[in-house]
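Please predict the structure of the following assembly.
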Amino acid sequence: MADGTQILRRNQPGSRAKDFCRWPDEPFEEMDSTLAVQQFIQQTIRRDPANLEAILKMPEAQDEGVWKYEHLRQFCMELNGLAVRLQSECKPETCTQMTATEQWIFLCAAHKTPKECPAIDYTRHTLDGAACLLNSNKYFPSRVSIKESSVAKLGSVCRRVYRIFSHAYFHHRAIFDAFEKETHLCKRFTYFVTKYSIISKEILILPKLDDETPITQTVGESEA
Amino acid sequence: MGTNGNGRRSGTKLPDVRRPMDEGDCVNDMDSPELDFVYDDCDSQANEIAELYSYTEHPEFQLNVKAFEDIMEEFNFPPSWQRLTLPQQRTVVMKLLEHLDVAVSDVRMRSARCILYLAQGCWAEMQSDAEQAHWARLNIMTLYEMGTFAAFIELLNLEIVRSSSAMASRKIAESLPDSTNLRVILSVLYLITEHMRTEKENPDSEYACLVKNFKEELGTPFGEELLPVKLLSMVTHLCAGTTPYFPMKKVLLLLWKVLLVYLGGSKELKERKARLREMYGLAPINEDTLEIIKGMRASSPPPSAADMLENQNPGQRKLKENERALRRQTFMKQTSLDESDEQIYVDKEESGNGSEDYPMEFQSMPADNMQNQNTNQNCPYYMYFKQFDSPPPPPPLPRSLPWQSKVRQKDIDMFLDNVRIKFVGYSLPGDRQTVAGLPQPIHEGVEILKKHMYTSLSEVQAEREIEIARSPLTKGEKIVEETEAEILYRAMLPNLPQYMIALLKILLAAAPTSTAKTYSINIMADLLPEEMPVTVLQSLKLGIDVNRHKEIIVKAVTAILLLLLKHFKINHVYQFEFMSQHLVYANCMPLVLKFFNQDILSYVGAKNTIPIFDFPACVIGEQPELTKECLEIGDSSVPYSWRNVFSCINLLRILNKLTKWKNARIMMLVVFKSAPILKRTLKVRHALMQFYVLKLLKMQTKYLGRQWRKTNMKTISAIYSKVRHRLNDDWAFGNDVDARPWDFQEEECALRASVDRFNHRRYGSGGGQEVDLTPVDTDINSVLESNVELDEEFKDNYELWLEQEVYNNEINWDVLLST
């Protein structure tokens, strides 16, 4: 797609899968659209989804609220991939409730009065709810600056989204592993919420993934 | 006018003036000392928090510690909050929040209780109130920062629905256990809100940023509803009887505090008013009612039987007559006073029998030269104004009326009209300048009126409304400023009448004059324990608790109503009118009067509180056994109940707001025989409270008849000296020759029409009457898409129509399209 003098960073109708998003990187300083932060994050992820540190290294002079917001947005978008894979295996008949370890059943907060939804519904509702909130005109009218009070809302979204990971891990391990191998999404999410102390380590019930990358300051080195 | 008549008669019928009033109990004046109550938006934080809990709830405090200890054990932390590091504390809070999402109700509620314990300042570990308050503040800020408030709103939504399904099996009477979960949730919400409110007052708080977030959060809907609207709908549900177990006291207290933080208190109101007046180009107001009244003394109550006896003493009487002669002189003089002679000074308690005199009597004051003399006399009683500790208002002339006199444009117009008719024989409608042909004194009169003219925001807003109605396209409303009050009004509008009815029903049920029979609703559900007390002491305690509970509910409801009225009034006068109309329809006025038709002195002095059972005293330190003595422990140094005086003043202010400039409603005051009730209220020796009573009496004086005035000269003097004068307003002596109730009804209807038009225009669904003003749809696609209903007759004969209207009609399409 990079032919010609003008680089058009867009997937045209009819692009082949292998051509998707295959355009050269652009330095962050030169991105001039209002969606620069998203573009930058996606670009770093494409380069190497396993390089957590690079992905979560905030450019200088970047508003931290926006940075967190855009990352959470990206997580939710990518999580849809996991949800799609889960659909084949996680049925309302088998996983009738949202559980991680058997200890707690979680309520689905996407309803006016929270309900006990089956796991797959919980996943869908939570992702929908998160998308609704993150795209809401009231809370996030701008993607350039974000109200402090809205940033505070991200915490509860993160906690709820994390349960999707833990359900997949404890109940659909194969799907989880395959997805994680490709995207490193859970690792990245864990690194994200720890780095910005959005969720404390005690709540992150997934064991540190495999033998690689302990979730500490040294994250990313072994992978990169 | 009337002054002359009065002056003449007072010479011969002096004893009449002194005749004691026959209504009211004869309470010795000495029994009601002047109250040092200071009116404010609310009480101190400690008291406001103590009032959240009923005494019957005490056993539950222990459950909170228990929940905390269990959870800490589970988390492998020591059960001591102080010993945890800040990150550890945050971890605990995060885990607790995680538990709030769990499906098992017990787990959820245990964690909610634990959070409540943290918000209560971990009192079990604390040695003193101060320490507990310190930790409460820290914890609440941490809790809020981590999103507890929003999480608890979700929990509230859940619990409202769950408990109503659990309540399907109805019991005979609701009691404390029915609302346990709701009470825990509401308490946490209230504690956060109350701390935020206090923090907001503190200008250099390190949490200013959180406070700002909190305010923003209140303004954005949780789910679909704004929090205040959600709480109001809880109130209406209770009144509808569908959810009798709702803990109404906590709901109302929370609602009040939420409004106070969201809309702002008197400080914000003042600022906003000043800003709006500037915007509309009106002169700034430099009088602050509360500040001015702080400097006033309370009047002694109207004379009682003791007074009468004293009056029969001839020697005393002689003295009095001299005094009176002097006073009469003032009255005569008043009519010829010119504007600089508004100065009247206080002549107080000169002979030690001041207790039966109004402290404010007038004497004639030869202007200027006396002024110096008086200052030399060095008599502090010559001033209305005590010393101000807070920033003093613009230094008032020590010997002047407390208020600037005011006059409305309308009154000036009327005055001009009258004098023109009288002196030149014709009127000049709309002309406010021409004074040609009028005598010199009238010129001066007009000058003075103009100098005192005051235009209120309401008048400007109402005028603007007329303008918009006249030319909606050219002068129509552009943008409505999205103020907090505006957002709230829009959200409340669809159900506003129901909210008002519900609030008033609760007020009625909580009023001290209500008997068990008049309870249409049960407001005690969150107070009465499951098992009734067995010992005398316990029932004594419960009795106090019940009264305290009612008083707190009254306090919250009156504060909510007043706050809403004030904010709507500034935001747009028709929003205020809409709300007050519905209050009037819901019988607010007789209700308030009924409230005051009780032994008001004992209400104001009521001690329905047991200090050692108040939170946090009831949980910190050693707890005594329940004995007769402990009901009496505590400071009784304050001779009044803060909340009761506060509620009384709120109610009087509400009544004033409803009736100001509304003749039809003033007539209601007369019809409901408010005068004796109000006069009895004057016994409470508090300047602000008396001020609002006097205002209410002033507006109806002219309908009360001469007999009333004759027997109530003292009250009239008090009105004269304390309430603002309206130039040209003959409130005291004008007999109500012009009172024509049907006119008043007309005024009321006109107002209602204006309010409806306003609501329709600004919040209506569009369409309706404004069909002429909506732009014509010229897009061919959308025009062809719209469905046109044709009637049968047309369908049968359409060929004829086609023939006549289309084929036989020459249409020059070129011309049509080019225009």
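Chain A touches chain B through 27 residues (CB under 8 Å). Chain A is about 45% helix and 0% strand.
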